[in-house]
């Protein structure tokens, strides 16, 4: 494989940009946490390749062709399953991008990995580049780290690739939690950008906050009682626990010293933590000096059968007043012998299934690639195009200026994008000056932000009984206890009958209409508890995803009406009083019908209503708008003469996106439409025409003339349009509310359509 930097003019010019994006799983037969992003350039054989994580069996010799070049590796965090193959994947001059925290502790991490896991350094530490802002990896491709919780130093990545004047944003979550970790922020979904592609780590678990709360309670309770306390955990988990003890000292009015021993101490120091209550002992000779009454001592490994924790446990295991608290993440059997009080907890720092699903419903990606899991059925009901092939085939994701439909989507038409600017382009430029979430951590963590129940801890330390402890086992006589369930194993199960107990699949938090793309008709209202009731793999997507990859509205026989869930409420915004005197009350019926309205005399009202489902997430809004009849006629004639097979709603949505793009770029000053008709008459003709208009009940003279002109331009005129604007709806509101040129949101739509017609006419 070649690892020559892609910025070399021999690979691509510095002003070039990718024209294709494809991907392949790098180790599907192992952990499946590693993916290879491939960026193709016009006129260049081979791809610029960016590897995300290098787990077990990630072999680039197998994946890269002779003309492909590895331009970098994104290391999400310093857990062995994400860097085990890293030394074999990189050669000289290939940068490894990681958070500054991960880069700072890499030397210590790799030293231990070399001793225990036969992972040789081979220049990895020198190749690491700590990034906390935008970094260019190859022509037209940049990346930015995103906080991810999960473990100290863990990050995801936002990868942005240019496509001419357009650009597109890809989010790679890596392993993540929504909660903070050791003071560093958790994964956030309120990104000031439009995420079109999501690489989602699909590992899930029961709430890790429960295990952390109980383990912390055990340790603090024993220490405040004056006993010697040993917490055994992996080195990074140990650092996390130490910061939680510091947080408990600050919030719960306790003063418990912490002593970190061995590798845990080294990583704590390398990461730059500094809490008054924490002492670090990287090397020790006498275990008794590390175990003192009233102090919480933390060491690894997580099960005390080796190295520092084994030596320390050997010192206190026969002390009936001492306590051993084991935080097990690997599935290894805990130690349950000895005379001290021994407890253990299964800890998996991953989101719950409902938390995982919320990432998709919040970010609204067009396409989602699942990683760190096996099987294809478990998440096929997500409102996005889901990829989970389970092999290392190269799959195209973006080419020819549009997103590629997955191979399982049949009978589709490609979208004509020649006259449109997609939301992903202008959202990034419009919000370019807004910062993405910072990696900065707080000096002292907040227990609630870390997922720890501070009230339960306070009750335990005050001697009040705790009846909510979960996942806990205790032994003082060596008798085995039942293992708590491994909830995190559901993410890697290959069974198609696993029940998604954490998810509310009857109301999954999505605002989208769901569309069938292949196979037989299915019932899209999936019950909350189901086993084998899912449709055939990956054949349901959202309206947004369908419009972006199917080329308009897909098959005509699927219809365009948006079904209303019987559990959802349909609401209608109150129209602007400068547009119509009709006040439309919000609908509270279950069937989605509009509420009754009454109206006084209205002169040619414009109809505009927004329908949405409100489930606590950002609503995806559908706009019903009445276009100016002349604009509607011109639009119909343009569609007919250019053989544009998109629906009218899609054309209007694209026009609005392009218009808002230009407004946000300051390329035009918003103004009302000029394509209109105003009739001025005098004398008897004025009186005669006014009487005729009133008799015909056609509003006013201007409206009557507009209608006749429109009818002369186009037959079978459709002026009322239903269009799905997605996230553009909120931007449309903002433009309407901040610019006096528009009395209603429908006026903004008219201006957008007029600009679209003028732009396409000049292009023709």
Automatic annotation (TrEMBL):
Residue stretches of biased makeup (Polar residues): 466-478
Chain ranges of the Metallo-beta-lactamase domain: 37-228
Region of interest: Disordered: 454-513, 545-617
SMART domains (alphabetical): Lactamase_B
InterPro entries hit by this protein: Metallo-B-lactamas (IPR001279), RibonucZ/Hydroxyglut_hydro (IPR036866)
Pfam families: Lactamase_B (PF00753)
Comp. bias regions, Acidic residues: 499-508, 566-576
Biased composition (Basic and acidic residues): 454-463
Protein's name according to its UniProt entry: Putative mRNA 3-end processing factor
Organism classification: Archaea, Methanobacteriati, Methanobacteriota, Stenosarchaea group, Halobacteria
